[in-house]
Amino acid sequence: MLRVATYNICKSVGTDLRRRPERVLAVLRELDADVVAVQEVDRRFGERATALSPEAIEGETPYFPVPFGVRPASLGWHGNVLLARRGVVVRATRRIELPALEPRGAVLADLRVNGAEIRVIGMHLGLIGHWRRRQARAVLMSLEALEEPLPTVMMGDLNEWTVDGGCLRLFARHHHVAAPGPSFHSRRPVAALDRIITSLDLRVEAAGVHLSQKSRVASDHLPVWADIVPAGAAAAAERHHVAQSPWI
């Protein structure tokens, strides 16, 4: 069993408009996941300094940040970072450029978790539907270009308000798209903007929105989580068949 989660922390600014990284750290501890994809970890302008220091992450949570930052003060890549539980082995990392009118990106890491190999992508897609679809294609093409296939989890704030259209339809062609539940706005969640997507050789055993007293105020998004297990030989064969078929 692997627990993954995704959380848009809104640069550690809570619903009271105060920047309180300690509240985000508390929510991360509550999640108790093996891997967490975090969005908006860095500030948008200037040095794009992180709003969540690596020292605080490692000192106050069971996670460590997978290194992606290209600026000295940044933690992530276009605000995206992956946090892995201590003991997880990072085999490889990659930054993915996404087409957009505004800066957007995704991060990829090949990890060894409890002896199992898994590929994880964290992403934050754009506000405009046309660009979200282009960004989804860019993520999928980046996956297709990799030589070593691995069970894969993609997750993040997709900014997709439709239930199963838009970029979700692209991801769903050859992947499972989980719907943990509405995660935005954290004070009154009505939209399932935060999603977890898996390759066909993985199965989501359970998924949900993490709602607690702390998560209601730490960010305008609630984190979502999923417990994932291998899907079995039949699903692996289906994944191989899909890999031979064009998805666009």
Automatic annotation (TrEMBL):
<keyword id="KW-0378">Hydrolase</keyword>
<protein>
    <submittedName>
        <fullName>Endonuclease</fullName>
    </submittedName>
</protein>
<dbReference type="InterPro" id="IPR036691">
    <property type="entry name" value="Endo/exonu/phosph_ase_sf"/>
</dbReference>
<dbReference type="GO" id="GO:0006506">
    <property type="term" value="P:GPI anchor biosynthetic process"/>
</dbReference>
<dbReference type="GO" id="GO:0004519">
    <property type="term" value="F:endonuclease activity"/>
</dbReference>
<dbReference type="GO" id="GO:0016020">
    <property type="term" value="C:membrane"/>
</dbReference>
<keyword id="KW-0255">Endonuclease</keyword>
<dbReference type="Pfam" id="PF03372">
    <property type="entry name" value="Exo_endo_phos"/>
</dbReference>
<keyword id="KW-0540">Nuclease</keyword>
<feature type="domain" description="Endonuclease/exonuclease/phosphatase">
    <location>
        <begin position="5"/>
        <end position="221"/>
    </location>
</feature>
<dbReference type="InterPro" id="IPR005135">
    <property type="entry name" value="Endo/exonuclease/phosphatase"/>
</dbReference>
<dbReference type="InterPro" id="IPR051916">
    <property type="entry name" value="GPI-anchor_lipid_remodeler"/>
</dbReference>
